[in-house]
Structures are given as structure tokens and as C-alpha cells.
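Page 42, continued from yesterday. The earlier attempt failed because a stray header line got pasted into the input along with the sequence. Redoing it now with the clean sequence only.
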Amino acid sequence: MSKIRCIVIEDEPLAVQFLAEYIVQVPFLELQATFKNALLAIEFLRDHATDLIFLDIHLPQLKGMDFLKTLMNPPAVIITTAYHQYAVQGFDLNVTDYLLKPFAFERFLVAVNKVKTAQSEKLKTNDRVEEKDFIFLNVQKKKVKILFSEIVYIESQREYIKINTIKQQYLTKMSTQEIERLLPVQLFKRIHRSFIISIPKIESYTAEMVEVNGISIPIGREYRGIIENL
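This time it went through. C-alpha cells are written below.
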């Protein structure tokens, strides 16, 4: 497996130094660059692909969480901060881990191993997805074949998800995160904590909602801008 390319966005020189020292000790990590503010990182990301961002929250000019909301198809993100109160917001934005300063190398290693595991699973899933245009899901004690081309949107219902297709609805016991990993990224996009939509089924949109197949789906605040960038 190739190395995980990463960048550090951190305005404290000592914190940057510690992170760089941690990164160089991990064989599967490759440090591409460090940035003292998020605006400089945005310029870098326009021309370079990266796999992982170590992100501080309290940054000059553009705060870490606000920066994260601007990213279309963001890479893995590990928050590094001295402030615990932003943890819930961070996980709402699908960050991989949340490291409270000061953190030991062992805790750092736990976080980056999560990224490595997730990337390995994603590669395996993408290989499987590219070979087919359907998925089998457990529905009422049997496996049901559902074509990707027929899915309109998917809605979270606590421990279940409801898959709305052009023909009918299916209810299966799994999380939104689990089904999202099984869907081809070029066809589906998450626009809300509770909703995943089919990109080809989009008929119209505003800053707050998307219409798919005649159904209005809300866009979550942290997901605004995603549709514009498709």
C-alpha cells in the first residue's frame, strides 16, 4: 500500500514540530507540507492531492471548522486542539479522530491507524463496487437486489435506513455511514446527516434543499456548498 500523504495546518510552531516528529516515525505516513493558516492550505489543495489533514481549530483568518466545511470531498481529517468542546461538531463533520493537546505518540498512532484501516477498506470496497451496478441488502429476512440506477435517496431512521427507489422503498438495519461506504462515490452524495442522494436524480436545488425525483431533501448546514461543487 502506498504511503498516506498528509499536511499539517497549525499556527503554533512547537505544535508543528511535534507533529512533524511524530509523522516521520510512522513508516506509512508522508508529510507533504505544513501551513500556519487554512487559506494557505486551500491554495495547496487546489493543485495537490492529499490523504490526511492534521487540523488545528483556532487558526488565524479562517477557523479550522469553517475551513473543513469549505472542502468538497475532503480527505481524512484528524483534529489537533487544546479545546474539547468542539469534539461533537468535529465528528458531525466526519473527522476520523479528535486529539486533545498535549497527546502522546501512542495516542497519535491510534488515530493514524484508523486512517490506514479506513483507506484499506475503501480500496477494497471501491474494487467491489466498480465490478457491479447493484447491491444486495437484508430486507425482511431475505437478500434483496437493488440497482444503483434505481435509488433516488437514502434516509436514516435511527438504527435503520430507508432506501427510496423509483419502484418502492426498502428498510434495512444498518447505519448511514455503512451504506455510504458501499455506494459508488461518483453516483451518490451525502448532503445531510440523515440523507444520501443520487446525483443523477437531482432535478433542482437551492442553498437549503435538493429536489430529487420530485422529492425535496434538506441540505445540512455543514454540507452546504457540496451541491454547487459537484
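Notes: The domain at 134-223 is CATH 2.40.50.1020 (OB fold (Dihydrolipoamide Acetyltransferase, E2P)).
Reminder to self: strip header lines before submitting.
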